[in-house]
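Re: that chain you flagged

S.,

Sorry for the slow reply, it's been a week of failed gels. I finally had a moment to sit down with the sequence you sent. For the record, here it is as I used it:
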Amino acid sequence: MATSSKSHQRTGEQAWGKISKVNAELFTLTYGAMVMQLIQDFEDVGAVNKQLESMGYNIGVRLIDEFLAKAGVSTPCTDLKETADVVAKVAFKMFLGVTADVSSWNGDGTAFSLLLYDNPLIEFVELPPQYSGLLYSNLLCGVIRGALEMVQMKVSCRCVRDVLRGDDVNEIRVELKEMMEDVMDEDYKEG
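Prediction finished late last night. Pasting the structure tokens below so you have them in one place:
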């Protein structure tokens, strides 16, 4: 697995070079402005959390095409462990310029945590006490859920720890709910 992880890290570095980049500060400030607008529009932190996850899901559904086209991952992932490593080392690097560590697998190998020590979304951000329940990076949970659903993995994602709430790391917990059947393959077999 260590060899595979190093290979995925190299692939992530190569993919990072293929993507058009936006100024990191502009990206961070634009994201922050969007979150503030959602807070003004919804006036409820729970509703904002749901909206961020929903927006992320829609982004993930569309982002997977670019990932598959430009990432340079030569073979499809064979299991959830390899998928987790590709998300952490290739996808995060390709789109955010950072990598995540994969840890805390459950006994069944169906759930893991992504640890982000550098989260570009939270640069320049401090949460006021009235927004302590805000899952500021919940967009990432939606992106992961949407992208993996497009490759036939139904997962749930949630922010477990957040640097903005005083934790030492940002942690996203990902749990596989089901491997979905590929509808086209089933139609082809019946035809």
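What I noticed first: Helices lie at 2-18, 24-42, 45-70, 80-96, 138-150, 183-190.

Talk soon,
D.
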